[in-house]
Design a protein that fits this description.
It is a single chain. By secondary structure, the chain is α+β, with helices and mostly antiparallel strands. The chain has helices spanning 40-49, 60-74, 99-102, 117-123, 126-135, 272-279; strands spanning 8-9, 51-54, 84-86, 106-110, 141-151, 159-162, 177-182, 193-196, 207-209, 213-215, 226-228, 235-239, 243-246, 255-264. Strand 9 and strand 10 (213-215) form a beta hairpin.
Length: 288
């Protein structure tokens, strides 16, 4: 592929995850149909389980607009945007490959809201912000991270089990809310979300640099694994300390998603060394 030096290529090991690390034995129950249905009972469920499913958050036309916006970003049709992370196999991609083909060699888009109004409109959707605020106890939400997560067919790699707050320079108790929006059917076969309910109440967990910045495979409560399939336009709201991950996509189906993270607008940041003192730069004297 042309201009390889300018490519941002995923540097994670190509090795797959151990068998049995993601179990499709239990499917998430409960949840609500729409964002406007996020009421006190739904908020209580979120704080008990660490996540909440909204099955019909965005209409099909909004999903179609989002997919078109993603293709514009991948195809270089948005001036100034450089936040495309490719899979390692993209080095063999022809320079003139169309966006529809290029997308199956992309792992992630990053910081696109400043460039793509159609995606920013989803992040700033009033119903979504109301729901996020309710989960934060009424605090004004501030969106501080925007990503599109593309798990290409037949090779989109795993995102190992982790806690999102391990990546963020915020105090562990900060009520960070992640929003994971399916743009395709997200299924057990193509790498939908897996969670361990209730782990957000167990505090920070030591992370290690292995296949990614992750919880040690042996430290995941696999007997409590719950799989969270979603239809296009459905989403999962989840706490920043919830243990979650997504297996590799071995199917022939795309699994494209948007992900936003919100924190209360008055959150005070901590230093990176304070964060790694909590989560461990290499395990805090613990082996993995």
């Amino acid at each position: 592929m042309a201009d390889q030096q300018a490519m941002w290529v995923d540097g994670a090991p190509a090795a797959g995850h151990p068998p049995g690390l993601y179990r499709n034995l239990r499917t998430a129950a409960g949840g609500v149909e729409t964002l406007d249905a996020v009421d006190a009972e739904a908020v209580a469920s979120y704080w008990d389980q660490g996540f909440l499913v909204v099955r019909q958050a965005f209409a099909p036309e909004r999903v179609a607009e989002a997919l078109d916006a993603v293709l514009d970003l991948i195809g270089g049709r948005v001036p100034g945007f450089r936040g495309v992370q490719f899979e390692a196999r993209a080095r063999e991609l022809p320079a003139d490959a169309p966006a529809e083909v290029r997308q199956d060699h992309v792992r992630k888009l990053w910081l696109f809201c400043a460039h793509q109004p159609r995606l920013r409109a989803i992040a700033e959707d009033p119903a979504l912000l109301r729901a996020v605020s309710a989960l934060m106890g009424g605090a004004a939400p501030f969106m501080f991270q925007d990503q599109a997560l593309l798990k290409p067919p037949l090779g989109g790699r795993e995102k190992p089990w982790h806690q999102d707050n391990a990546y963020f320079n915020v105090a562990p108790e900060t009520p960070v809310v992640g929003v994971w929006i399916a743009l395709d059917p997200a299924t057990p076969d193509n790498g939908c979300m897996h969670v361990v309910p209730g782990t957000h109440r167990e505090g920070p967990t030591v992370h290690f640099s292995r296949r990614d910045w992750q919880i040690c495979d042996d430290h995941v409560a696999l007997d409590r694994d719950v799989v969270v399939p979603l239809p296009p336009g459905g989403l999962m709201l989840f706490h920043g300390l919830l243990h979650h991950g997504t297996p590799a996509n071995g199917s022939g189906m795309r699994r494209r998603a948007l992900q936003f993270h919100y924190r209360p607008a008055d959150t005070v940041s901590i230093r990176g060394e304070q964060r790694t003192a909590i989560y461990g730069s290499e395990g805090k004297d613990v082996t993995c």
